Each structure stands twice: as structure tokens, then as C-alpha cells.
Amino acid sequence: MGTSSTEGAGADFANANRGFIAALKPGTITNSEGTVIWNADAFNFLQGDCPDTVNPSLWRQSQLCAKQGLYEVTKGIYQVRGLDISNMTLVEGETGVIVIDPLISVECATAALDLYRAHRGNRPVVAVIYTHSHGDHFGGVKGVTNGEIPILAPIGFMEHAVSENIYAGTAMGRRGSYMYGTTLATSPTGNVGVGLGMGTSTGEFSLLPPTVDITHTGQEETIDGIRILFQLTPGTEAPSEMNFYFPDFKALCMAENATHNMHNILTLRGAQVRDSRQWSRYLAEALNMFGADSEVLFASHHWPTWGTNEIRQFISEQRDLYAYLHDQTLRLMNQGHTGIEIAEMIQLPPSLATAWHARGYYGSVSHNVKAIYQRYMGWFDGNPAHLAEHPPTAAAKRYVECMGGLAAVIEHARRYRTNGDLRFAAQLLNHAVYAHPDQEAPKHELAGIYEELAAATENATWRNFYLTGAKELRGGVETSVVDLGGGMATALSIEQIFDTMAIRVAPPMSWEQSFSINWHFTEPAEQHRMELSNGTLAHWSTTHDKPADVTVRATKSQLLGLLAGADPNELEVSGDLSVLSTLTAVLDDNKPDFPIVTPRESNKGEHDLAAGPS
Questions:
Q1: Most distant CA pair in the chain: distance in Å?
Q2: How far, in whole angstroms, is CA 599 from its chain's centroid?
Q3: N or C: which end of the chain has fewer CB within 10 A?
Q4: What is the rounded distance in angstroms from the CA atom of residue 370 to the CA atom of residue 280?
Q5: Are 184 and 191 in contact (CB under 8 A)?
Q6: pLDDT 10s digits, 256-307
């Protein structure tokens, strides 16, 4: 494999080591109960030679990401790397320090700040900046502040932080356990990182709402004597994201828009499809705004890039990477090819394919191309045969029957495996597992194929999916989802809390119920109207009451308590108190341990859609 001139064979390692001050020793972080929530030392095996069980390119990337400690980016700017999946950056001002992206967990953020202070002095935190709305960039905020300082974030931050971590949080969390390999042992046969970092911490998750919105590109703020020039980049790596430049340091923060790997247009854990076209254009804008003056570029993951020429080449190659994926997908789409076909057709030009920072350690050409197709065309490829296919279990039973039964399918799969076609062997055995979920033989056969696929792939998240799937096929579901909702709940608005309730309303119990509630809140001072009808919970803010079945006077914390199981009798209520019990009764529980590689309960029945939708 070749390399670009920006990142020669040893340049990444030199840059990843540059400015090193001290590591956290030992490299473990615990919570208040003594449970380890982060263990950097578990990846010490990466210091050795690459084994046959890991792709050599991925091994190299993991060696780079495993470096941990406090680093000087430039005089006055420091990073703590390797104490969570993300970096925490600290910028020294006249009286204190600005914290950028306080990691996932309160405990990790506290440890990172303590490491900084041990070597730079006990400077107070004077502000926090969230670069974007993903949890690994704000969850540890209460480890660095109690909220009595400015907190800056791009406009729309709270909406998108809640949408991803709360509304779809349970499903994304379950899929995330596969993507990040959270149940896998850290070893040469297990988890070797995720390409973007080493993994996700499991400590206390928190959120403090922003106090200063960044609303437009070109907005300038001065904090503790430090000038910061902002560039909004919505719809790139996150729906709400921003880059920013420190003129006095000649330092450019690229958030998560330009890192040392190909990123995701759609993450394997699930998210909104990102706009690769706009992503590329914002990188071009950053290059034009800041490229000529920047002497160091740092980001929310990985290691910095130094030198104006090196920075310009790095950003331009990242710009071209996302533009190429977008434009070639659209070109082939308009020739009639589908997403799954285009993913097999596209190859990066040599100039990008040989750049280490453009390689698919986290995103991949394959799943990014499918995501771009999905953004424009949706799930349907236009073939009527795919319009109303049977769900997985029903289809699997038919496939297995057509192929001569379970034993025949297993034998076919073994033949394809022997011939090196692991992908089709996996498809065959997946049908076998779904058709006969009570049989262990196809599960163990499929698990072995997943392990072979894992050993070959360069993409860390694909590796973790394969290995986690293999583990669950052999041993069943192991719940590992971290509850982000609890740590965020107090930061939600009343409207957002009601939204979380609306998406939990369960049929058929809700179909025959109807009621109305007037909510009067004192903290914050708001009025809301809520109505349940036709299995739908509608709500809106209001300034006056209409007649209702019940009127409730409460604080936001009391509302959260009611949802957590508190006695409704503790609330100030006028009207029919039983309505509140009916409300909580129609709310379904989330299921964070649903199966992924074996059938879900809803897939076990037969569904006949031959006549089309009713």
C-alpha cells in the first residue's frame, strides 16, 4: 500500500507522538463504585506485531489510536487523547482554560482535566465548546463544570442531541454495541478498536444545555481573551456541527469533519444519512477561509497535522474523498444501477486510495455508497419483486425449503466457504439460522464464517459487527447498552419529554383510550395541552386552558418522576386522577437487548402480503 505525501510511512507515528507530555498511569478510570469504565491499558497488546487475526492496515491504525496521554498541540493548546473514543482539547486563556468536547463520561472528563492540571496548573474552566451533537463530545461535561460558565454549540444542537440519543437511542444503542464491540474482549482475536478511536467509555453520561448559540459562519466570539472564528457545517458528520479557527494560535479545529480515516455517510449503528455533497463543500469552504493561515490542524479524534502545506493537502484530499463518493454514486445511479451494485463498482482514484487518512477504518466505500443512494432514492431499488418481500424469517423458511432443507443449505454453505466465497456462505447460513433458530449447527457454522470475515476486513466497525454477531450466535444476546437517556433527561425541554412519551404509546391498548390533560409547569413556567386519540399522543404549548379530563400542576422533575414510576397522588391534580395512570399504562418499555443475528419475536410469524397493502 502506498501513501500520500502528507502522510508518509512514518509521518503519522511522528505526529501521533509529537508534543507528548505524560500518560495516565495506570491507564484505567473507575466510577464511584470502583467499576472500571475505561481501560486504555487493555490495548497494550497492540505494541506487538500484527497477528493473522487482524488486517495489517487496521492494526496500524489501532496502534496510532491507542496512544494516550496529554499532548501539546501548540503553545497554549493541549489535547488529552486516548482516554475515551474522542479527544478533549484545552485552550489556555488569560485566566483559565476553555474545554472543547468533554468526552462521553463524567469520570473520563474529570480524569482528563486532572491530567492536564497536573502538568499545566490548576487553571479554572472558563468555557466549554461542543463541536457537534454526538454524545462523545458532550457526555462528560459535568466532569469539567457545574454549568455556571458559557457553553457554546452550533445552532440546533439540543434538537439533534435529543433526537439521536433519546428518540432513537435504544435502537441505536443496541446496534452501537455491535459497531463498537462493547461485549468483545480486547485482544488480537477480539476488539482492536474502532478506527476512530479505541472504544466508548461506560461511565456517567451528562448534558448541560448550551448558553451561546453559534448561528452563522463568520461569527466571532472572544472568551477569556481568546478570539474564535466559527464556520457552521450542518449536515456533515452531524446534523449540528461546526469548525472554528483560533487566529492568535493559527490553529484550526475541524471537529469531526476531517479526521485520519474515511468517515461514515451513514453509521452502522444507524443515524440520519449525512450529506456528502455538502460535507465536501464545507471542507472546501474551510480550506478557503482558514487554509492559508493555519499552522496546525486538530480534530475531535486522532492526532493533529502540522504545517500549512500539509494542512491544505489533508483538507483537499478529504474534500475530494466525499465529493468523489457522492458524484460517482449519482453518475452510476443515473445510469440505472442500484446502491448495492454501485457499492461493488466504485473504486477510489489512486491518489485517494493510497492516502492513509482516506482509508476505510471507520466508514467504508461500500456502506457509504449505499447511504448516498439511500439519501436520494430511499430503500426501494425500483424492482417490483422487492416492493413487498417477506420479512426475514418467513423468507428464510422458503429459501431453505427450496434448497432442500437445513442439511442441504449447510452443505452448500460449506462448499462456498471452501471455495473462498465467504459472503455468499454467510447469506445461505443466515437463512438457515432464521428458518431454524432452535438449531445450533447453522449458528456455529455462521459464527465461524463471521470470524474469518472479521480477520480480513480493514474496517474496524465491520470487524466488530462480525465478531459480535459470532459471539451472540454462540452464546446469545449479552446486553451492553449504556443508558444515555438518564443522564440527558434533566436537560430536555418539556416538549422533548412529551415527544419521548409519544413514541412509546403502544397499540392496541391505546386504540380504545382517549383523554385530555392540561399541564401547568412551575419550573419552567409553561403550559401545555395533551390529548390521546387514535393511538396518538398529541401535545402543544398553550397560554390558556380548554376543558380537560385532568389538570396537573408540577415541575419538570416531577414529570420525570411520574415517568420513572412515582405515585401520581404526589402531584397537584384537579379532575380525574386515573387519567395519569392510564397515560403511564399505555407507554411501552424500550427493549435494549433485542436480537440482531437471530429472529426477533415479530419475525417469527408468517405475513402474507401477496395482495399488496390494504
A1: 76
A2: 25
A3: C
A4: 18
A5: yes
A6: 999 999 999 999 998 889 999 999 999 999 999 999 999 999 999 999 999 9
Placement of cell 386519540 in the chain: 533
Whether the predicted pLDDT of 451 surpasses 70? yes
Quick check: 448 and 471 in contact, CB under 8 A?
A: no
Same fold: 11-325 with 493-585? no
Q: Which residues pair with 574 in a beta bridge?
A: 551
Q: How many helices (H) and strands (E) does the chain have?
A: 19, 21
Cβ atoms of 364 and 343 within 8 Å: the answer is no
Instruction: For residue 92, give the 3-state DSSP assignment.
Output: strand
Domain spanning 493-585: CATH 3.30.1050.10: yes
How confident is the model over 32-61, as pLDDT tens digits? 999 999 999 999 999 999 999 999 999 999
Q: How far is CA 571 from CA 13, 560, 563, 575, in A?
A: 60, 12, 13, 12
Distance CA 179, CA 196 (A): 12
Out of 81-85, 438-442, 590-594, which region has the weakest mean confidence (pLDDT)? Answer: 590-594
Class of domain 11-325 (CATH, top level): alpha beta
Rounded CA-CA distance 63/61 in Å is 5
Average pLDDT, the chain: 93
8 A C-beta contact, residue 100 and residue 150: no
Contact 144, 101 (CB under 8 A): no
CATH number at 386-480: 1.25.40.880
Statement: residue 159 has pLDDT above 70: yes
